[in-house]
User: Which sequence fits this backbone?
């Protein structure tokens, strides 16, 4: 633990093991990103760094800013602009997490009490707004209208995706297309923007920009699909990780959509009771997982993710081999394989 | 009522009477601003224009975008950039209103049900985020880093002010200085940014920019002080307007601070019970107003506002006489005199 300006930061010394090789290649820059984050979340209104520090420091793996740093390295970037822009990406991500937890009325995130659980909804909403504004201040200081366009577009798309997710919540008629639209907006938009910025600061040709944009977008979709799968994973449960959060919230994720499509009338009634009427009993989650296993849903969900992972891999084809490229490809595999 | 893209808009034909002469001088441009607002609050996620349309169309007087248009006219601006930037200002304002109503758990705004009362907190938070992002997208399209800096700075300051207000809420130890810091951040920052932008697009010398910034800031503070005063105004009550909202929320506004400073021990206990312990009975608001009258608090609050109004007036001294200057000065007087 380090303490800067009174805020304790959980060092990035123990990220998820499989992210370590990639993190190691950008370690110095990531430390610099953490310093920029600390510096810019400060305010004379002390509740702001307290609350922001809680969520920013709480052991997040910094995946999105790492993607910005890695993408810049892949493009041979030698400057320092990517440090500040990676911090912007993390600020935008953190702002959406704060607002998400209010919207979902979540009490736990990564095993710790959420900001809204500790301080209430009110400052969580407002500190989210503050971090979002700070992100734009940092971009303005960087001075690139192109970066500002990429991240303001991504922010609008994220908000649209969040509202769309709210609408599809508790609606078993949600289609795969609806689900993928939400994932593309809510998760993949920031992944793709984070990666694209790495090429933009490097002033590389547009095809490299779009290649990294595609890498980020497809990786983001694969990442979210696997995240949604793990919420029903018996393997996760064996590892002692929380499962069933999405089920308890009535979230209509890909495993649910596939299970519902293959359900007989009795099973359809089960899904409707649990996820639309939100009448759930103790054993329902186990039964849901059992139904998913019976219909081969989890394997097929993983196959979806693998298809996007494959597109993400292909997107980097034009870049010559390098240590950073190898690790950017390996984390895709890690992301998909963690389902097993 | 007009209907554009399925959204009904209350025309600006009946703003507060005293704002009419100023509004008339920018009427065509304000119609154009309304069109930009309608166009850019659209989304394929239909809940977004529904919810945004509710709050944007609900008869707001568009004071902040009018200030941008008026300031540009004062600077002799001939272009069209101010139209889009005035829309940005209104989007930022609307986003903060949506989040404010969630934070304050308000059910009514301008006599209509709030978005959170109609649709719940969740979409209100997210549509606020969407409008905020849209504001930045519009600024990026405009292409001025200077404008982006002014409005991202203002947004961060507004969020800080809102958090600070949350902290001072229910705390009778709040000082005049604390109160003025909140008002300066929460209200005056956007007024001043809105005005300054009018000079920026006109590419006028910096002293005109700062003059308009000062006009907006001082006008904003005077405006908010009077707003806080009116919440305890017997005159307002006679006119059938709601009073006592701040009292019921335990908001520590300037009238309360002055009344508490002049209170004897029994009166201090009264204020603490009502605003800190939040134990209020039917007759407490009447008693609060009576105490304020007894201590000359409302007249002194108005005197504070008048001092800022005077600074706002002085800020325009260097501009030559013109119809728009006259109306920009007259709305200051209107703002202060509406207290009587």
Assistant:
């Amino acid at each position: 633990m380090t303490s800067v300006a009174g805020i304790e930061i959980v060092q990035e010394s123990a990220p998820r093991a499989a992210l370590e090789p990639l993190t190691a290649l950008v370690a110095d820059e990531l430390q610099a990103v953490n310093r920029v984050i600390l510096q810019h979340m400060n305010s004379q209104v002390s509740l702001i760094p307290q609350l922001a520090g809680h969520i920013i420091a709480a052991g997040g793996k910094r995946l999105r800013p790492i993607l910005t740093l890695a993408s810049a390295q892949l493009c041979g970037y030698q400057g320092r602009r990517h440090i500040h822009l990676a911090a912007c990406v993390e600020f935008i991500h953190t702002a959406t997490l704060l607002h998400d937890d209010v919207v979902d009325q979540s009490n736990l995130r990564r095993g710790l009490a959420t900001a809204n659980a500790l301080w209430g909804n009110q400052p969580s909403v407002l500190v989210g707004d503050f971090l979002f504004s700070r992100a734009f201040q940092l971009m303005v200081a960087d001075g690139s209208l192109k970066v500002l366009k990429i991240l303001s577009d991504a922010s609008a798309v994220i908000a649209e995706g969040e509202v769309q997710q709210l609408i599809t919540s508790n609606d078993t008629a949600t289609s795969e297309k609806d689900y993928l639209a939400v994932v593309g907006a809510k998760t993949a938009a920031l992944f793709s923007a984070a990666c694209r910025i790495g090429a933009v600061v490097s002033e590389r040709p547009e095809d490299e920009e779009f290649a990294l944009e595609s890498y980020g977008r497809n990786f983001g979709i694969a990442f979210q699909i696997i995240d949604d799968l793990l919420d029903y994973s018996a393997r996760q449960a064996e590892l002692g990780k929380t499962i069933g959060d999405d089920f308890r919230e009535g979230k209509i994720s890909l495993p649910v959509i596939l299970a519902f499509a293959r359900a007989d009338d009795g099973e359809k009634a089960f899904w409707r009771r649990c996820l639309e009427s939100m009448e759930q009993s103790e054993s329902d989650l186990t039964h849901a997982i059992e139904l998913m296993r019976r219909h081969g849903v989890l394997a097929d969900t993983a196959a979806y993710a693998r298809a996007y992972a494959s597109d993400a891999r292909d997107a980097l084809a034009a870049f010559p081999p390098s240590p950073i490229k190898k690790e950017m490809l390996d984390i895709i595999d890690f992301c998909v394989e963690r389902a097993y």
Summary: Residues 211 and 317 of chain A are 9 Å apart (CA to CA). The radius of gyration of chain A is 20 Å. Chain A touches chain B through 42 residues (CB under 8 Å).
